[in-house]
TrEMBL record:
<feature type="modified residue" description="Phosphoserine">
    <location>
        <position position="183"/>
    </location>
</feature>
<feature type="binding site">
    <location>
        <position position="118"/>
    </location>
    <ligand>
        <name>(2R)-3-phosphoglycerate</name>
    </ligand>
</feature>
<comment type="subunit">
    <text>Monomer.</text>
</comment>
<feature type="binding site">
    <location>
        <begin position="59"/>
        <end position="62"/>
    </location>
    <ligand>
        <name>substrate</name>
    </ligand>
</feature>
<dbReference type="InterPro" id="IPR001576">
    <property type="entry name" value="Phosphoglycerate_kinase"/>
</dbReference>
<protein>
    <recommendedName>
        <fullName>Phosphoglycerate kinase</fullName>
        <ecNumber>2.7.2.3</ecNumber>
    </recommendedName>
</protein>
<dbReference type="Pfam" id="PF00162">
    <property type="entry name" value="PGK"/>
</dbReference>
<dbReference type="GO" id="GO:0005829">
    <property type="term" value="C:cytosol"/>
</dbReference>
<dbReference type="GO" id="GO:0006094">
    <property type="term" value="P:gluconeogenesis"/>
</dbReference>
<keyword id="KW-0067">ATP-binding</keyword>
<keyword id="KW-0963">Cytoplasm</keyword>
<feature type="binding site">
    <location>
        <position position="151"/>
    </location>
    <ligand>
        <name>(2R)-3-phosphoglycerate</name>
    </ligand>
</feature>
<feature type="binding site">
    <location>
        <position position="36"/>
    </location>
    <ligand>
        <name>(2R)-3-phosphoglycerate</name>
    </ligand>
</feature>
<feature type="modified residue" description="Phosphothreonine">
    <location>
        <position position="299"/>
    </location>
</feature>
<feature type="binding site">
    <location>
        <position position="36"/>
    </location>
    <ligand>
        <name>substrate</name>
    </ligand>
</feature>
<dbReference type="GO" id="GO:0004618">
    <property type="term" value="F:phosphoglycerate kinase activity"/>
</dbReference>
<keyword id="KW-0597">Phosphoprotein</keyword>
Length: 394
């Protein structure tokens, strides 16, 4: 990476404003998955060990510029304290006199977590005044929030223009892994794209078609491709206005010599429910009144074989409605194949695929699970991430 990191600068005694992505899933006020907090620990330890005063900032949820009590970061401060084994102070605001007073009393190696930066309307607007107010708290800016690096907000982008600005260790690792994979992939290189909508994956499919050997399609978005092949898909998800685009992807794959794999069978049902009656059908025989909610067993086996024969696999998006056990087998088979493939470097894009790997107890068998859903997708689309662009070059 051509950006400076916390390893390249002097930190002793410095007040460091460190943007992290502690946007963790919460259920009834409790953190249901602390992966993102754990992922920030190497940076936080480095900063404290080097004698910095660590001022952490994050968003949580989408409070839209207002204080939302359930989205305060107090539970996160508590969990961070447990995980790091260190005291973590929690401020009730993210800048201003009260925060300044806490910082004035910090010793080298102390940790402070600011309040949710999205409680302020200026955050998502990338308001220069708010960016300056954040910057006024510190001597150095560190961005370790890979998951939010695709957002040009005051705490992810604006602030970087007012302070020496470097990446944290998680940011550096994410960019290294994804960057190397895409610029110099080991082959055969396979991408697995699933999820709900073609609309959300157009950019990534386009970009990957330039690079991969195999492109595997699953999930709800697959049925627009099946329709484009000329089959009936019953009540399955369809984006009518994307059929022509799907056809053009099929053509483009042929021209470029990319092997595009589409489902050959499916698990269908008449109702969207966890205990629905199911049936397995060939892809050209989806009944009119039914919807396909998972890839079928023949497709799963085919996809597993391709994974096993690949040296590098990038996976983004589930193969079916994995939240319901009856429609989880396709996603599970893909995750299991990735876990079992010992000579395959497996990269799981964040979001739902990471949640699925976690659900099946296979997360620790993957080579790299990205902490960024939208951010990893935009990176794979070949887009520049504003939170990275704003950092100082080496
Ligand atoms: N055949 C299908 N029919 C309907 N919904 C489906 C189907 N296959 C998958 N899904 C649903 O798609 C959703 C995930 O897709 P979505 O595009 O939201 O996330 P994603 O691709 O994992 O992206 P991100 O990483 O940003 O979370 C899941 O909730 C899953 O239930
Ligand atoms: O969870 C994420 O993908 C990041 O934290 C970004 O959140 P956002 O989509 O609300 O900007």
């Amino acid at each position: 990476m051509n950006k400076k990191s916390i390893r390249d600068i002097e930190l002793k005694g410095k007040r460091v404003f460190c943007r992290v992505d502690f946007n963790v899933p919460m259920q009834d006020g409790k953190i249901s998955d602390d992966t993102r907090i754990k992922a920030a620990l190497p940076t936080i330890s480095h900063l404290t060990e080097q004698g910095a005063k660590v001022i952490l900032a994050s968003h949580l949820g989408r409070p839209k510029g207002q204080v939302v009590e359930e989205l305060r970061l107090a539970p996160v401060a508590e969990r961070l304290s447990e995980l790091s084994g260190k005291d973590v102070q929690k401020a009730d605001e993210a800048y201003g006199d009260s925060v300044q007073a806490i910082i004035d009393n910090m010793e080298n190696g102390d940790i402070l977590l600011l309040e949710n930066v999205r409680f302020y309307p200026g955050e998502e607007k990338n308001d220069p005044e708010l960016a300056k107010s954040f910057a006024a708290l510190a001597d150095v800016y560190v961005n370790d929030a890979f998951g939010a690096a695709h957002r040009a907000h005051a705490s992810t982008e604006g602030i970087a223009h007012h302070l020496p600005a470097v990446s944290g260790l998680l940011m550096e690792k994410e960019l290294d892994v994804l960057g190397k994979a895409l610029s110099n992939p080991e082959r055969p290189f396979t991408a697995i794209i699933g999820g709900a909508k073609v609309k959300d994956k157009i950019g990534v499919i386009k970009n990957l078609l330039e690079n991969v050997d195999h492109l595997i399609i699953g999930g709800g978005l697959g049925y627009t491709f099946i329709k484009a092949q000329g089959h009936e898909i019953g009540e399955s998800l369809l984006e009518e206005d994307k059929i022509e685009l799907a056809k053009s992807f099929i053509e483009s794959a042929k021209e470029k010599g990319v092997k595009l794999h589409l489902p050959i069978d499916a698990v269908v049902t008449a109702e969207f429910s966890p205990d629905a009656e199911t049936e397995i059908v060939n892809i050209d025989s989806i009944p009119k009144e039914k919807m396909a909610l998972d890839i079928g067993p023949k497709t799963s086996e085919l996809y597993a074989d391709i994974i096993k024969g690949s040296k590098l696999v990038i996976w983004n998006g589930p193969m079916g409605v994995f939240e319901f056990d009856k429609f989880a087998n396709g996603t599970k088979t893909v995750a299991q194949a990735l876990a079992d493939a010992k000579d395959t470097y497996s990269i799981v894009g964040g979001g739902d695929s990471a949640a699925a790997a976690e659900k099946f107890g296979l997360a620790d068998k993957m080579s790299h699970i990205s902490t960024g859903g939208g951010a990893s997708l935009e990176f794979m689309e070949g887009k520049e991430l504003p939170g990275v662009v704003a950092l100082n070059d080496k």
